[in-house]
Amino acid sequence: MKTTIIQYNYSMLLGLLSGIFWALDTILLGKSLEFSKLATDSIIFILLIAGLHDFISGLWVLFSIVITKNTRMLLKSLHNKDCWVICVAALAGGPVGMSAYLLSIKFTGAGTASILSTIYPAIGAFFAYLILKERLGFCGKIGLVIIIASTSLLSLSDLTMSDVNFIGVIFGLICAVGWGAESTICSLALKNDLQYSVALLLRQLTSAFIYFIILFIVNLNDMVVVNLIKTIPLHFYLKLLGIAALGASSYLLYYRTIGKLGAIKAMGLNISYSAWTILL
């Protein structure tokens, strides 16, 4: 019993840490976009950064698998049918969720984007009920409302109405739907003992692949993507390398929490990133 309680608390801590790491990812990425003299008003630029973010973070995960000598486990897990489930989650969380999140940051700022995206646990709970048949008890519903409300109110204390942009709000809501769907789909795969690191590697690389396919199609006309890549200075790529490491850490802790505590509790802990975005 004591061991179970310790494991439960440890998983809770990991879920909270996933929120802290994601807040750092958000802040640093937001500042990089804000102070960059690149074409940050371009949707193509946003898609490129999102794709590179997921691809580089995927490489970080692959690196961790290799240095921990789990390559054989990776190859074995690739035969697991749940790998395909993770690929679907990647579509919801990456090209849909992450792109919308970055566009929301671009149009309305990191603080407002974080607030809007905090409703994703409620959306995820709805999806979990439909797909996984997970039900929230009365206390669970009250707790979810309190977590979302308190996190949002804390974030709102640092914002004014002038910070809010309608287009940014729309993208923030799209992000919440994408992330809510991703959490539920991942929970379905992780329940069947798919390794967290393998699941995250597949998620990030699948997401990046979809981004790059979109960018490849866009680039066919006038080589706009290639020209944009050439204009990005080396120091920006180096910053993205570090930011992606934070993103990979956040996701890895988040996936582990989903596997141990379930999608709803993991989402409830992860949304603390909104408050940390304001406090840090």
Shape: globular
Mean pLDDT: 79
User: What sequence of helices (H) and strands (E) makes up the elements?
Assistant: HHHHHHHHHHHHH
Gyration radius over CA: 18 Å
Tell me about the biggest sheet?
Answer: none
Unreliable spans are none
What percent of residues adopt helix (DSSP H or I)?
over 70%
Helix-and-strand structural type: mainly alpha
The count of DSSP E runs of length 2 or more, i.e. the number of strands, is: 0
How many H/I helical runs? 13
Q: Quote the beta fraction.
A: under 5%
Q: How far apart, in Å, are the first and last alpha carbons?
A: 36 Å
Describe this structure in words.
It is a single chain. The protein has 280 residues and is mainly α. Helix content is 84%, strand content 0%. It is globular, with a radius of gyration of 18 Å. The two termini are 36 Å apart.
List keywords for this structure.
280 residues, mainly alpha, 84% helix
Task: Provide a quick synopsis of the model.
The protein is an all-alpha fold. The protein has helices at residues 2-35, 43-67, 71-77, 82-108, 110-117, 120-131, 138-156, 166-190, 196-222, 224-231, 234-261, 263-270, 273-279.
How would you summarize the topology of this molecule?
Layout: H1 2-35, H2 43-67, H3 71-77, H4 82-108, H5 110-117, H6 120-131, H7 138-156, H8 166-190, H9 196-222, H10 224-231, H11 234-261, H12 263-270, H13 273-279
Helix pairs in contact: 1-11, 1-12, 1-13, 2-4, 2-9, 2-11, 4-5, 4-8, 4-9, 5-7, 5-8, 5-13, 6-8, 6-12, 7-13, 9-11, 11-12
